[in-house]
């Protein structure tokens, strides 16, 4: 079976750092993606991890541990515009490249 | 702007009806994916096409069907609509040339079934 878990909601303060966790159990693993989605809009790509370790991209970083089935997205220097849902998605090991998404974490950034 | 276009943006229809959603992938992308997102739900994978051929199927109902045409645009057909089919339907495209292939999402079609 395939299961991806993320917290439903998180709240943080402008300027702070927040870590959004994702755990997964999938039949095969071929990469983990993080997407940002503002309400009613299309998801936009944030990061991709396939090897263990940290990938840094400006204010956003993503970490992966394949042995633990665990990833996190780290957002630094939070801005009000970072209020959005953050979707963790796993690509299985088949030929389709389809993504299995978690339910998403709704992040609210307060002044 | 991701380069993926979807029409229409909004669609309101009645139960029992049939609708067609259209998607044009980014130039050069061969793969098209369809996802359904109901209120407060995650993205549910429906179906994928690659260069005109069906490649993968997710939790797609039998009342739903899709196809990808020679010009690579895709259509998702939803029939015998029910209230529970009300959702955002996203199309995404990718090159499908490598494992790190990210998917680019279109703006979505919001379907409301009354």
Give short descriptive properties of this protein.
heterodimer; A: mainly beta; 6-stranded mixed β-sheet; 5-stranded antiparallel β-sheet; 11 strands; 0% helix; globular; B: 114 residues; mainly beta
Structural commentary:
The complex is a heterodimer of chains A (111) and B (114). Chain A is 0% helix and 56% strand. With 111 residues, chain A is mainly β. In chain A, strands 2, 4, 5, 9, 10 and 11 form a 6-stranded mixed β-sheet that branches. In chain A, β6 and β7 form a beta hairpin. Chain A starts with a strand and ends with a strand. The mean pLDDT of chain A is 92. Chain B is mainly beta. In chain B, strands 2, 4, 5, 6, 9, 10 and 11 form a 7-stranded mixed β-sheet that branches. A 4-stranded antiparallel β-sheet of chain B has the order 1-3-8-7, with no helix packed on it. In chain B, a hairpin with a 5-residue loop joins β7 (64-68) and β8 (74-78). Chain B is globular, with a radius of gyration of 13 Å. The mean pLDDT of chain B is 92. The A-B interface holds A 30-31, 33, 35, 40-45, 48, 50, 87, 89, 91, 94-104 and B 2, 4, 31, 33, 35, 41-45, 48, 50, 55-56, 58, 88, 90, 94, 96, 99-108, 110.
Helix content of chain B: under 10%
Order of helices and strands of chain B: EEEEEEEEEEE
Q: Averaging pLDDT over every residue of chain B, what do you get?
A: 92
Number-wise, the strands of chain A total 11
Gyration radius of chain A, in Å:
13 Å
Poorly predicted ranges of chain B: none
Shape of chain B: globular
Count of alpha/pi helices of chain A: 0
Tell me the structural class of chain A: mainly beta
């Amino acid at each position: 079976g395939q299961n991806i878990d993320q917290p439903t909601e998180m709240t943080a303060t402008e300027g702070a750092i927040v870590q959004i966790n994702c755990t997964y159990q999938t039949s095969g693993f071929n990469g983990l993606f993080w997407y940002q989605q503002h309400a009613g809009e299309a998801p936009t790509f944030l990061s991709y991890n396939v090897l263990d370790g940290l990938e840094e991209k400006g204010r956003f970083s993503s970490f992966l541990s394949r042995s633990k089935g665990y990833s996190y997205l780290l957002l630094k220097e939070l801005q009000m515009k970072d209020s959005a849902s953050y979707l963790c998605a796993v690509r299985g090991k088949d030929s389709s490249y389809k993504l299995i998404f978690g339910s998403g974490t709704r992040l609210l950034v307060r002044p | 702007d991701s380069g993926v276009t979807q029409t229409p943006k909004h669609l309101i229809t009645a139960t029992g009806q049939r609708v067609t959603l259209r998607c044009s992938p980014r130039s050069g992308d061969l793969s098209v994916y369809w996802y359904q997102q109901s209120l407060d739900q995650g993205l549910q994978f429906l179906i994928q096409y690659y260069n005109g051929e069906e490649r993968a199927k997710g939790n797609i109902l039998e009342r739903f069907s899709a196809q990808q045409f020679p010009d690579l645009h895709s259509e998702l057909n939803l029939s015998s609509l029910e209230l529970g089919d009300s959702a955002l339907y996203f199309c995404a495209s990718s090159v499908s040339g490598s494992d790190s292939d990210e998917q680019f999402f279109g703006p979505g079609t919001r379907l409301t079934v009354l």
